[in-house]
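Project standup — Tuesday

K.O.: blocked on the structure for the chain from last sprint. Re-posting the sequence here as requested.
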Amino acid sequence: MTEHQDNRTGRHCTFVLHAHLVFVTKFRHNVFTDAHLRRMEEIMRDVARDFECEIIEFNGENNHVHLLVNFPPKVALSKLVNSLKDVSSRRLHQEYPEPVRHYWRAQRLWSGSYFAGSVGGAPPSAVRQYIEQQNRPL
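H.V.: unblocked you, prediction finished:
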């Protein structure tokens, strides 16, 4: 997909909206392995589809994840973020109960805060490249 083919259309608008999201684990605990991150990506892509969004790029390390999301104007980013974090936390807890010991005392996987940056100033390809270059745990 080239930069000029990113335009999406809604009922009354044409849009190109991208956000760079970063979620950090509670207390920055090192919880994720490559297997966790692969499953998390699948879960988050499913959630994004339910919001009519697309995760352009996903990557992470043992205590945080980066997402580049294409979203329609009708989606409130805060609602998308809450759903991504809630569903991924719940499903990972069900599927991988062992790492939960590291964070269950806090009753949640994710920190209550998150980063959301508009990608309007930088071309999505530059942000995508940045996310691709983030290291996954060994």
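K.O.: great, moving the ticket to review. The CA atoms of residues 44 and 84 lie 6 Å apart. The mean pLDDT is 86.
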